[in-house]
Design goal:
This is OmpA family protein. InterPro entries: OmpA-like_sf. Keywords: Membrane, Transmembrane, Transmembrane helix. With 224 residues, the chain is α+β, with helices and mostly antiparallel strands. The chain has a domain of 146 residues: OmpA-like domain (60s Ribosomal Protein L30, Chain: A, 2-Layer Sandwich), CATH 3.30.1330.60. It contains 4 helices and 5 strands, in the order αββαβααββ. A 5-stranded mixed β-sheet has the order 1-2-5-3-4. The longest helix is centred in the N-terminal third of the chain and has 70 residues. The chain is elongated, with a radius of gyration of 36 Å. The protein starts with a helix and ends with a strand.
């Protein structure tokens, strides 16, 4: 009897410490998992808040750009026409260059000057809630010779330079008459030339109308 009691007592003496060790280990594991889960939750919560903040900023910028595009409709009229397919403005002054030349004839200069004044005035008077910088691209173009004319191939590369010089001459015309866009901190003007190429060209009988200028205004909203 005494032996049996002694054995039970020894079993209890081994069981309880083992049980306590097991429960302690489980508690430690659960505590680690809880801390890890809590950290993941807080990290995820921070990411969601950051993403939500970025979405609000993007939404505000998109709203601002939409307002600016509506304001740019003021350009449309005597000097500019909006091309919705290519999202840009075409200068309506019917400039005609002599073949292979980049000089702007005197008869077109008054209208080109007034177009430049209109462009600058509209951009300077647009009211915005956030800082805005306008990237203004003035693109010169060139018309191809009649179909089959070998000059279309021989002069293909040089027309890029030709159309660029035409855009440069327009910029110089504006500068010489007090329209220096580089003095406006919120306007960055870039000139380019597309030669015989570029999107939205006139085709067929209207090929000659490609001797023109295109104006593209790209608003950049946000911190500068």
């Amino acid at each position: 009897m005494n032996n049996t009691t002694s054995n039970k007592r020894q079993s209890n003496d081994f069981f309880w410490p083992s049980y306590v060790d097991l429960m302690t280990s489980l508690f430690v594991v659960m505590l680690v998992l809880f801390v890890y889960s809590f950290k993941l939750f807080k990290d995820r919560e921070g990411e969601l808040k950051q993403a939500n903040g970025e979405l609000k900023v993007k939404a505000a910028e998109l709203e601002q750009i939409t307002k600016i595009r509506r304001s740019l409709q003021q350009l449309e009229g005597q000097y500019f026409k909006y091309d919705p397919a290519n999202e840009r403005h075409e200068l309506l002054v019917p400039v005609q260059f002599k073949a292979g030349r980049d000089e702007i004839q005197d008869s077109y200069k008054p209208a080109l000057l007034q177009a430049g004044r209109t462009l600058r005035s509209v951009l300077k008077n647009i009211k915005t809630d956030q800082p805005v910088r306008y990237l203004v691209i003035v693109e010169g173009m060139a018309a191809r010779y009649p179909q089959g004319d070998p000059r279309n191939t021989h002069e293909e590369q040089t027309t890029y330079q030709l159309s660029y010089r035409r855009a440069l001459n327009l910029l110089n015309l504006w500068k010489q008459n007090g329209l220096n866009f580089s003095q406006d901190r919120n306007i960055e003007l870039i000139i380019g030339g597309s030669g015989f190429y570029g999107t939205g060209r006139y085709q067929g009988r209207r090929e000659g109308d490609n001797k023109r200028f295109l104006i593209q205004v790209i608003p950049k909203v946000g911190r500068m």
